[in-house]
Amino acid sequence: MKRTLLIELKNKIGDEVRIRGIVETIRDQGKIIFFIIKDRSASVQAVCWIGNGEELFNTAKKVTTESIVDVTGIVKEAKQVSAGYELEIKNLVVDSLAQTPLPIVIEEEHSDNLTALNKRLDYRWIDLRSKKNHLMFEVATTMTKALRDYCLENEFTEIQAPRIISAASEGGANVFEVKYFDRKAYLAQSPQFHKQMAMAAGFERVFNVGPVFRAEKSFTTRHLTEYTSFDVEMSYIDSFKDVCEFEESMIKHMLKEVKEKYGETIKDVFGVDVVVPEGKFPFLTVEEAKKKLKDAGIPSKDDGDFSPEEERAIGEIMQKETGSEFVFMIDYPHRQRAFYHMKNSEHPTLALGYDLFWKGVEITTGAQREHRYEELKKNAIERNISEDSLEDYFDYFKYGCPPHGGFAIGTERLLMKLLEVDSVLEATYLPNTPNRLGKLLGS
């Protein structure tokens, strides 16, 4: 008999069906055993009576929670059950018996305690069985698909940039060095150089989705050493604000798609309203932001940068003033941005770029790039970056390259803010951090 998904059972009252899934809970009342069985679509109460046969009942007695079962039975009306039906078991096969006790408790409400989180991550494959985690990654799938679809609808070409590269794309800092046969290579910090290569190749509009790597010993709730980056690059822009405008439209499209498919469920499970912005995202200069922080009595260094606490405060201030969860932060000092960001011609100490904040957390860095060969080399020299190490990159701009710009979004951080979970580790399938590689903790 072909398997039936649990969500289909409401239309199968009186029918014999075969279901397969995980045993979520067991309630043994002596002569009757109640199971809650779940699959990817739903869950159902399944009942085994002693009168259904001694062999069947003995098999049911041995089942443990989290075991994998293959069940055949009759779908029957059951007014005492919230679903209005249950499954009366006629045959039960245990595909895989779960050992007891489980090393962790599968919880729908997670503690924000770091020790508890690390324990759950050690047994991530069990932790991921919770309904909350399943929903999280279903939402992530819709989120990324919506971003990708929006690019495709706007005539972007998807490229796959290499992840092993010969030169560090962000100027040499915080890179993982790897041995590549008889030479040094690096894990890509971003596909930036190869997006710009596509601009020089005349592709005009490209996007890339894939892993990037940062050798940063950051132990915060929003940093990873490996994460998925959604990168966009577009040619023939007049200003970096053209890039802002595209990203704003893309984000709104994504939120609309997520809200339509999962809005009510996200509200029920995570307690979060998915809000699709109606107005334009406001712009705020770094100088203006520093003044707002000062006026609010929040100390801030005059260094053109913001601490996580300052970012949160700016988010709260701007939401009160404008009603927007989003804000484009602009006019950063050029010295603090990547060397390939274009300088503001009227204020050369400033970069033509931005960060996009959402709910007080930076989710994007974007900019107009420097496409002029000589100016790009000057920028690198000012940073004491070796020309030889970037020779191949500079070559992209020798033979004509259109004005262009782009941005990158870390999808795990985007998901973290969308669902308001406490840590990006929660929003990552199997997170890598300075102390964690795969599922293993280091010393």
UniProtKB/TrEMBL annotation:
Originating species: Candidatus Dojkabacteria bacterium
Subunit structure: Homodimer.
Protein name: Aspartate--tRNA ligase
EC class of the enzyme, as a word: ligase
GO biological process, one term: aspartyl-tRNA aminoacylation
Record's signal peptide: none
Domain Aminoacyl-transfer RNA synthetases class-II family profile: 137-431
PANTHER family in UniProt: ASPARTATE--TRNA LIGASE, CYTOPLASMIC, ASPARTYL-TRNA SYNTHETASE
Family: Belongs to the class-II aminoacyl-tRNA synthetase family. Type 2 subfamily.
UniProt keyword Repeat present: no
Keywords: Aminoacyl-tRNA synthetase, ATP-binding, Cytoplasm, Ligase, Nucleotide-binding, Protein biosynthesis
Binding site for L-aspartate: 170, 214, 365, 369
EC number: 6.1.1.12
Subcellular location: Cytoplasm
GO terms assigned for molecular function: aspartate-tRNA ligase activity; ATP binding; RNA binding
Function comment: Catalyzes the attachment of L-aspartate to tRNA(Asp) in a two-step reaction: L-aspartate is first activated by ATP to form Asp-AMP and then transferred to the acceptor end of tRNA(Asp).
Aspartate: annotated segments: 192-195
InterPro entries: Aa-tRNA-synt_II (IPR004364), aa-tRNA-synth_II (IPR006195), aa-tRNA-synth_II/BPL/LPL (IPR045864), Asp-tRNA_synthase_2 (IPR004523), Asp/Asn-tRNA-synth_IIb (IPR002312), NA-bd_OB-fold (IPR012340), NA-bd_OB_tRNA (IPR004365)
Top-rank taxon, per record: Bacteria
Main location: cytoplasm
Catalytic activity reported: tRNA(Asp) + L-aspartate + ATP = L-aspartyl-tRNA(Asp) + AMP + diphosphate
